[in-house]
Sequence to fold (295 residues):
Amino acid sequence: MLISRCYGRIVFHQIPMKLFFSLKLAALATLTLGTVGFSASSAQAQFTESAVDQSKVVAIARPYGAGKFDLLVIEQVPNKKQCWSESGSGPVVINPLLLNFDFTGHCRRATDSNGYSVRIDGQDYGLEYLLRVVPRGNELVLVATPRNPKLPELVLGSTQGLQSGFMKIQLYPGWQFTKRTFNNKALGHFYFSASQANIQTSSSQSQPPSQPQPSSQPQDNAPSPVTPGTPAAPTPPAEPVKPVSETPVTPTEPVKPVAETPVNPEQPTTPNRVANYPPKRPVSPPKLENFRKPY
Fold:
């Protein structure tokens, strides 16, 4: 019920039940979202990680669209149906066997950022980095793209070749799979885990910085190398600088003053507008006889 004041009197309004419940639900949703946001940030700080068998987890470059790939992570449940098979090398082709049967209870998979993230030195960087599979050269590379442009890009692995189907992503040394843990219980979230020292060593070994190659042709004005035991060639004397001859300046003619036109005192300088009108007639004073009236 709403209470309002109209012309000094209190008026009671009956609120419909649907509107009442809508307002109540809106207030409850606002309170719930604020609580969930706070709980998510605090729970992320409480997450830990646990080690897994590296042979039971695989990172796959999954094709979609025209020449596009995304990241797929599959975990094999022990003593269950086989989830995938591998063949070839450079790259290793993956046959996703789990697509041929109901893999519930046999395979675990993650297809987006809700199922996998980056963890470095025990800190979760799921909100700072986005895992992507991008083509570079003759292979596909798994990179962690920072949401903040001030952070560096991380390279986690590559396919070491290029094919049209599912391909295995070989993780670089220093990276491994772990599982997110909460209250000593492993969850279904996968971590690409590493330490900062191993990332720097791995990136330096896998992607050495390109060094500038010396040019084979000598640059202009560069001194030629002198062989030991050979007298240096005398440097030719520089040509003397010739003085620049000054051009004589021709004196300019003096400016002649402009002769002023004499003003005729009899002729007015401004036109007399009054002269264009007809002359005024003299006005005679009125006669008193015209105002006298007989009694």
Remarks:
- Residues 17-46 form the longest helix (30 residues).
- Residues 35-41, 201-230 have pLDDT under 50 and may be disordered.
- The helical segments are 17-46, 196-206.
- The CA atoms of residues 21 and 27 lie 10 Å apart.
